[in-house]
Please model this.
Amino acid sequence: MEERILGVLGGMGPLASAEFMRQLTLLTPAERDQDHIPAVLWSDPRVPDRTAARQGRGPDPLPALLRGIHGLEAAGAGAIAIPCNTAHGWIKGMRAATRLPILHIVEAAADALRAAGIGPGPVGVMGTAATLAMGLYQEGLRAGGWEVLLPTEEEMARLVSPGIALVKANRVADSHAPLAEAAGALAARGARAVVLGCTEIPLGIAAGPALPFPVIDTIEALALAAIRWARASSPG
Amino acid sequence: MEERILGVLGGMGPLASAEFMRQLTLLTPAERDQDHIPAVLWSDPRVPDRTAARQGRGPDPLPALLRGIHGLEAAGAGAIAIPCNTAHGWIKGMRAATRLPILHIVEAAADALRAAGIGPGPVGVMGTAATLAMGLYQEGLRAGGWEVLLPTEEEMARLVSPGIALVKANRVADSHAPLAEAAGALAARGARAVVLGCTEIPLGIAAGPALPFPVIDTIEALALAAIRWARASSPG
Model:
C-alpha cells in the first residue's frame, strides 16, 4: 500500500480548507476513489488570528500551528500544505520544528504565473494586511522577475480586508463586489495578472462573474503543487 | 481552549468529504475563523471498495476503516462522522473498536426528513447496490414510520451505479442526468421525498437544475448532526 500521505494544515479559514480538498480531488486524474491522494486535513479554526498577531493585537499563532504540524506528523503525513497565505509568515518556525517538507504557497503561485504565461513585469497581489506587510509575495516574486503592485491603504481598508472577513463569516456572495473592485483597480494600474494571495479571496471572486483579466487562485496553485508532490513520490 | 474536535472518516469518496467540510463550515453560525468547529478529516481514498467487498468481489474495508478511526482518536477527536453511507454497513465493527461516538448517517437522514416535514409514508432511497442490499435505510427508516421505495435493478444498473461512478471519476456534470432520472422515477412511483443515500449522489444532483420534489442530502444531514454534537458538547 502506498504510504505517502499529504498533510494539510488548515482551518485558516475552514472554507478555504474545504475548497483546497475539493480542488485537490478535482485536479487529480482519477477513475475511482482509490486513484485519489490520501490526505489528512487538520482543520483548526482556533489558531489565533495571524493578522492580529503580526500587528501586535493578538497572541502568537505559532504554538497552535506547531500542534497541527505534530498532529499531521503523527497521522503519517509525508509533506505539509498550508492553504493560508498569512500563516506562511511563520514558516521558518514551522520548518525548524519538523523534518517534513512544507510546500510554499508563494512558490506555488509563482509556478502558476509561469504556467499562465505571465512573464516578468507588473503583477498585482491581494492579501491580508499582514501578508502584504510581511512582504511574503514582494520577496518571493521579485526573484522571478515580477514587479508587485499592491492595493492602496484605502483599498485595503474599504475593500480587501472587509471582503476577506465576509468570507470567514460565511457571507461569500457579499464578498464578491469589494474583492472584484480591488482586483480591477490593480489591473487598471497595469497589473498583467492578479494573485489572489489570501485563500479566502478566490472563494469570493468565484461567487460572481469572471474577471476580465488573469487571476492566480492560490488554493488551486497549492493543490497543483501538492499533486506534483504526491505523484513524484509515488512508487511507479 | 475548547477541546472537542470532530473526527471525519472520509475519502469515500474524497469529493464528498470536501463537500462535507464545506457544508460543516457554511452551516455553522460564525463571524470569524475562531467560531468554526475544529475538525480533523482523515481522507483515505485507499479504503477498499465497500460495494465490491459486500458483493464478495474485493477485500474487507474494516481494517482500513479502523486505521482511520484510530488515527482520529490519536488526533484528539471527540466523535466521528463518516460521510459515506455504504461504510455504515461496517458500523458494528467500528463501534466495537472505539469508545468515541459515531454519528449515524441514517439517523441524520431521518432527522432531516422530519425537519423537512416529511411524515410517515413512502420515501425513495437511492444508494450504492451494497447500501440497498444491506438494508441500511430500509431498517433505519421503517422505525420512523416511513416506507422505503428503491430503484429497480434496471435503474440501479443503468442510472444509479454509473452515476455514482462518474462522480468518483470527477465527471460530476455528466452524473446529473442519470441520477436525476433515477430520483424522478422514485417520485413518479409515489415517493414524497428522495433520500440521496450515497454521498456522491447529492454532488451529481447539485450539478444540474433543482428537482421538482424534496430530496434529502445526506452530506448536509450529517453536517447538521455534527454541528449539533459540537454545539451540545461545547462549554457555555
User: Anything to note?
Assistant: Residues 172-188 of chain B form the longest helix (17 residues). Chain B has two domains: 5-104+221-233, 106-218. The radius of gyration of chain B is 17 Å. The first strand of chain B starts at residue 5 and ends at 10.
